[in-house]
Write a structure and sequence with these properties.
It comes from Linnemannia hyalina. It contains 30 helices and eight strands. The protein has helices at about 15-30, 45-55, 60-75, 85-95, 100-105, 165-185, 190-205, 230-255, 260-275, 285-290, 300-310, 315-330, 330-345, 365-370, 385-400, 405-415, 425-450, 455-465, 470-485, 490-505, 515, 530-535, 550-585, 595-635, 645-660, 675-715, 735-770, 775-780, 785-800, 805-820, and strands at about 140, 150, 210-215, 220, 355, 370-375, 520-525, 535-540. Strand 1 (about 140) and strand 2 (about 150) form a beta hairpin. Helix 24 (about 595-635) packs antiparallel against helix 25.
Length: about 800
């Protein structure tokens, strides 16, 4: 555009033409700057700066409102792409208010710091370029905590304001101008010792020769007439923060007290340091390191704790001053504390409270992991036991509101007319103790009554830990056939139907329907070769807030105990079935004299296994589960032991630890006995299967002999010889079976029998050496007459015992010879 005419195209007077020329030259100097500004290209930020400037000029805010409308239109314009440059240019030229100022500035002060590139005045206009120094006047800005930060302007360069030039010409002019500036400047780089002396005055709130405090804002500026490098400016910028802080504190002290002794002592101390170390190796970097302790930015509880340390001062005046200061600076802390212990709300937007929240924690883990103590923010007058009570109070209130839906009780009973402030620590502890007792008792009462915690624990003990005997017995008998099949042939709905039938057929039908509906069937992960016994399990569902005590980890522990007890119950059921078969078949198979010794040996081994299983069951169900359950109930009912939800969770965790450790489910003294127990139970099941095979063969042999006897009777009635050469095996086992089939059955039985005794002996040795007296007593009960340990010692001394299979084979041969005779 042509600035020689106004917008209407009319000629202007000479004075107006001079003003327009001055303004045009000033604008071209701005546009001709080559250095980028030390600002971020942010449209919103630069528009806010313009609004603030317009508000300062016009308190009615009319100009600012009008600018807001114009800025909205500019933002919606898609043609203009450099909106920030336009706004920045307008803000720069708005500082010029008169033609005289334009004339004075156009020829004396460069505008390279405004940061736009060179532009010509027009085609054919061959004006000479002018150069000048960049203004180095800088105003201090405030840092994030309110302390001043001195801007770091770019190095001064020469700029041109007229004519386009090629790149080579521009570089040549720039180099020549820079060289001219270096040669003509009478200001050289300041030494660090000079800056150090200036900073000593700044630290005491006194203006230096080069660094001075602003009269109105109190911020620091550097005299632009001195040549200071960019890196040195950065160090000075950080060090002046200490002086700014000192001046602020000194102003506050002067307002509250007429005595200025503290400031004088600090001034004398800093001055002495400057005189003592100014010429002995002190540098800006060393000074920065030494002053960092004074620049620590404490906040919240850490600041309160630091100030509270001065309450032990011997001067009563200082004590009174610190006490008054603590009352003021701790007021926000006590407001947060009051909201936490009376409302359960954590109002801490600046993370200043000693209790913090983890927002990433899921609701199921709210009590255990959502809130925690930050020790660095814990005031010195609040000990860790008291801090834990405060944490428990807030957690309990939050738990009551979000998990128990008991907000009405919080509004009616907590925080009415109560306020906390700094003062008597004993009174603070009393208020916290009262809130702790009230909220904890309310929470425990709701868990016991409304949410039936004791009933849930009892149901888990009866059904998951096999305490309901008639229910478990019926379930075992009903599921025995199905669970003997491969695991991949089971269907959950069939097992669920059997579970419901077992409930209706036992005393479990009289339990609370809410308890019974939580009982369910669960199938574990199936592996190749698994049977139904390996994957079947009972499950008990719990929901909020009971799942805070019965956590998924705790329910997994209950599942492990059920699997072990269910396997032990299965072995007991199998041994009962084997004993029942021995009793009912004893008379029938007595004629098979060859198997009489071995069948007698089977009854003896089966009796040993029954003794082992019954003693182990008695120990786990009574001495472990019942005793631990009694301790848990006493802990829950004792108000001195269970004072809050944390102590309740700890009592339940102790119950689980006792059950798993004493119940042989966990390692005791670095010895894990569970694998040996499982091997023993598997050996018993294998022995039962081998015994069934022997009895099946014996019953088949009896049927064969009965058929031969019936055939002989039929022949006799027809007048024929009753016995023939083919009937010679009527009273004995056929030779081919006696030599091939029978020895294999007897060998398998005796191998499992010896394996059972060997594994049981090793288990007894481990139990007898355990540190737990209950486990040592279990070892005594399993081997009260030292039968197994005595046999083991005899085998070790004799180099091995007599094979029971050899004994059985000899007995069978002897019996056969007696029969033949």
């Amino acid at each position: 555009m042509d600035l020689d005419h106004d917008s209407a195209g009319q000629a202007v007077s000479g004075d107006e033409e001079a003003k327009i020329k001055a303004a045009r030259e000033y604008c071209l100097r701005i546009l001709g700057s080559r250095l980028a500004p030390s600002l971020v290209a942010d449209d919103i930020h630069i528009s806010d700066l313009i609004k603030k400037k317009l508000v300062r000029e016009d308190p009615s805010s009319a100009k600012a409102i009008r600018f807001s409308h114009l800025y909205t239109k500019l933002s919606s314009c898609s043609v203009l792409t450099k909106k920030w440059s336009i706004l920045y240019f307008l803000l720069a030229i708005s500082d010029q208010t008169s033609a005289a100022a334009l004339e004075g500035r156009s020829n004396q002060q460069p505008l390279s710091f405004l940061g736009l590139h060179n532009l010509e005045t027009g085609a054919g206009r061959g004006r000479e370029r002018t150069s000048t120094e960049q203004s180095d006047t800088t105003m201090a800005t405030h840092s994030r905590h309110g302390s001043p930060q001195i801007p770091l302007p770019q190095q001064s360069r020469k700029v041109t304001t007229a004519g386009y030039a090629s790149p080579s010409q521009g570089d040549h002019h720039q180099q020549s101008n820079s060289q001219h500036s270096t040669n003509s400047s009478n200001v050289h780089e300041m030494e660090e010792s000079v800056l150090l002396r200036d900073l000593m005055f700044v630290f005491q709130g006194i203006d230096g020769k080069m660094v001075k405090f602003g009269a109105e804002s109190g911020t620091c500026t550097i005299d632009p007439s001195f040549n200071i490098s960019h890196s040195t400016r950065g160090l000075v910028n950080r060090l002046t923060e200490l002086g700014w802080l000192y001046k602020k504190i000194n102003q506050y002290v002067q307002k509250t007290s007429k005595e200025a002794s503290t400031g004088l002592v600090e001034q004398s101390h800093i001055a002495n340091d400057a005189d003592a170390t100014g010429s002995k190796g002190l540098t800006l970097k060393r000074l920065l390191v030494w002053t960092q302790d004074s620049l620590q930015h404490l906040q919240g509880g850490a600041l309160v704790s630091m100030v509270h340390d001065y309450t032990q001062h011997g001067d009563p005046l200082i004590q009174q001053f610190i006490h008054h200061m603590l009352e003021r600076i701790s007021a926000p802390f006590y407001v947060m504390l009051q909201r936490w212990i009376y409302e359960g709300e954590l109002d801490d937007p600046r993370t200043e409270f000693f209790i913090a929240v983890n927002p990433d924690v899921e609701e199921e883990d709210m009590w255990q992991s959502k809130y925690f103590i930050r020790e660095e923010m814990l005031p010195a007058f609040i000990g860790m036991p008291l801090a834990k009570k405060i944490l428990s109070i807030g957690k309990s209130l939050s738990f009551l509101r979000h998990k128990c839906d008991d907000s009405d009780w919080i509004l009616q009973n907590q925080g009415v007319g109560k306020s906390l402030k700094y003062g008597d620590i004993a009174e603070l502890e009393g208020s916290i103790d009262a809130a702790y007792v009230g909220t904890s008792q309310r929470l425990l009462h709701l868990l016991s009554t409304k949410f039936k915690l004791i009933e849930h624990l009892t149901a888990i003990k009866r059904y998951i830990l096999l305490g309901q005997g008639d229910f478990i017995q019926y379930l075992m008998e009903s599921l025995g056939t199905n669970l003997s099949q491969p695991a991949n042939t089971l269907f959950r709905h069939n097992l669920t139907g059997t579970l419901e039938t077992a409930i209706r057929s036992s005393n479990a039908q009289y339990d609370d329907p809410d308890i019974l509906r939580r009982l369910d069937v669960r199938l574990l992960e199936i592996s190749p070769g698994d049977s139904g016994w390996d994957v079947f399990s009972l499950d008990y569902h719990v929901d909020s807030p009971v799942n805070t005590i019965l956590t998924p980890v705790a329910m997994h522990q209950y599942l492990k105990m059920f699997n072990f007890l269910w396997r032990l119950k299965r072995v007991e059921h199998a041994l009962s079935s084997a004993w029942r078969r021995q009793t009912t078949s004893a008379r029938a198979i007595r004629p098979i004299l060859e198997l009489v010794p071995e069948l007698h040996h089977c009854r003896i081994v089966c009796g040993e296994m029954i003794h082992f299983v019954y003693q182990l069951q008695y120990y786990i169900l009574f001495e472990v589960l019942e005793c631990s359950w009694d301790e848990l109930l006493k802990a829950i009912e004792n108000n001195n032991t269970t004072t809050d939800l944390d102590s309740l969770i700890e009592a339940h965790s102790k119950y689980l630890r006792d059950v798993t450790s004493k119940g042989l489910l966990a390692a005791s003294h670095d010895v894990n006995m569970m694998p040996r127990l499982l091997e023993l139970l598997a050996t018993i099941l294998d022995y039962k299967i081998a015994q069934d095979n022997l009895y099946n063969y014996a019953l088949a042999e009896i049927e064969r002999r009965e058929r031969l006897a019936q055939t002989a009777d039929r022949r006799t009635r027809h007048g024929q010889w009753g016995l023939t050469d083919q009937d010679e095996t009527l009273d004995r086992i056929p030779d081919e079976q006696f030599e091939e089939l029978v020895p294999g059955l007897l060998r398998t039985l005796n191998e499992y029998s010896m394996q059972f005794k060997r594994e049981l002996s090793q288990l007894l040795i481990t139990l007898s050496a355990d540190g737990d007296s209950d486990l040592r007593f279990l070892s005594f009960r399993l081997d009260f007459n030292e039968f197994y340990l005595g046999s083991l010692k005899g085998a070790m001394v004799g180099g091995g015992g007599i094979s029971s299979s050899s004994v059985a084979a000899t007995a069978a041969t002897t019996g056969r010879k007696a029969t033949m005779r």
